[in-house]
Amino acid sequence: MCRFANQYHHSWYRSSPHEMIGRHLQDIIGEKDFSARAPHLARARRGETSYFEIPVPMRNGSFRDAAVTYTPKMGPSGFDGLYILTFDVAVLHQRYHSVFDSTAAGFWVVDYAKLPGLLTQLSITDAEALGQAARTDPRRVRQLLDALPVVHLNQKACQLFDVDVKSAMDQPFGQWWPDESLQSFAQQLCAFLAGEPFFEIETVMRTEAGDKLDVLLTCTFVKKDPDATTVTIGTTDIRARVTKEQELAKAQTELAHAARVALLGELMASIAHEVNQPLAAIAADGNGALRWLAKDEPNLNEARAAINRMVSESRRASDVIAKTKSLAVKATPATTSFDINRMIEDTLLIVRRQVVNFGAEIETRLDDTAPSVIGDRVQLQQVLINLVVNAAQAVSSCPGPRYIRLTSTHDDDRVTVAVEDNGPGVGNHADRLFDVFFTTKQSGMGMGLAISRTILEAHGGAIHLVESSDRGATFTFSVPHSTRQGTSSDRRGGPYPGMIPPISKDR
Ligand code: ADP
Fold first, then answer.
1. Is the CB of 398 inside a 6 Å radius of any atom of ligand 1?
2. pTM higher than 0.70, yes or no?
3. Which residue has a Cα nearest atom 14 of ligand 1?
4. What's the confidence (pLDDT) of residue 262?
5. Distance, CA 439 to ligand 1 centroid (Å)?
6. Under 8 Å CB-to-CB from 69, ≥6 apart: which residues?
7. If both were cysteines, with which of 12, 230, 414, 422 could 472 make a disulfide (CB 3.0 to 4.6 Å apart)?
8. Which atom, in ligand 1's list, is nearest to the CA of 446?
9. Mean pLDDT of all residues in 440-467
10. What is the residue with the minimal CA distance to atom 8 of ligand 1?
11. Domains of the chain, with CATH numbers?
């Protein structure tokens, strides 16, 4: 029986509080709605507070959504009645929608209700298994995406994706995901399954018409209500930024290319200059030898001496060419002790955009316990950039998921960095990869690996192709670490004076 009611009821039920006082709740809200509240009343009788959302009948026969709290009042002899707090959530919804629709980010509300069932069907038990399944067979991610319907989207999402609310509603969320971004969505699902509170990734989605759209995808996984199955996903347009980054990357690449071309020109000039002399001497000695042999009485000793000089001059010429590599690594080396993992992460910031352009994903497995290494950070970074860009170019020709894995490990002497890709491998060129000017690319220069080897040799380290098959290639380079060297943390000049060692004749 109602003992008290405030004025608010007047606007809802159009009955003033005094009309309600003394009446039974069942009488006020009707038999049917009273029984819908029975479980909550039972809880209140047990002394428990109950919070629930329920449609509230209005006097005119309509219903309004309300958030209701039943707080029991316990007396000396137990349950003594309850306070009912009813809040009109239509007001909340209105506020939510005005924020939802006027924000600058596109929001999608996607129903994940079918996800657990589908994962069971696919025998995927946890986030790790999902990540693995996504890498080996991206079609499974597509299957999942197609089973998650869009239940709402805001005006900004409609505008960004060029779609109207009606035609987007109940459509599978997969419709806005191109194949190349399936891994990004798989990562979002992994974060969801792993119970992470928040997820963010830069990815590419597609508009209703199929145009690519660069977005920053964000979502907060609300865990308060275990029955809620919807996830709200924010999509912010980052096309302008991505275009700028791409222009920057292009400019950087062009600059690097121009620098290489300039370097090549310089190298050519110096090779021509250096080789000219021995060539002229060879020609002169050749003519001399011919003359000695053409005499009526050939002077074999003079001819032999001339031919010997020809042989040594030609050695000098090939030495000059071999020195090309050391000429190419001409920046003054600065040897310091630095953290290889930080260098790898910094390098990824530089090459990430280029790698994404080739449709590849980068995965890192870094050895947190790796000691710092001794060497020229910039030169070793050049080596890594070259390996990663080579890997990205290699995987660009494969159809399926393209990945590049960077690993750091260490042993007693060295820290080793491995760059693994799932491209087509190096074929039967393994013996020639590190030769100067060896390239299989149309616009390649064949300098990268040759220069890298020179840099590593100068560091007392090594670079190798450790594996190659039609399923991919793995290159590693290793450098001595500081624990082994026992050096101070910033030693200029370093343990390798001059850095550039003489180049042996056989390469
Ligand atoms: P460039 O990249 O200019 O060709 P590099 O010296 O860096 O010069 O590479 C030489 C050659 O080695 C490449 O042209 C390519 O044939 C081969 N190569 C290098 N890395 C890879 C890789 N990850 N997968 C397959 N082939 C590779």
1. no
2. no
3. 439
4. 64
5. 6
6. 49, 50, 51, 83, 84, 85, 87
7. 422
8. 8
9. 89
10. 446
11. 7-91 (3.30.450.20), 103-237 (3.30.450.20), 241-331 (no CATH), 332-507 (3.30.565.10)
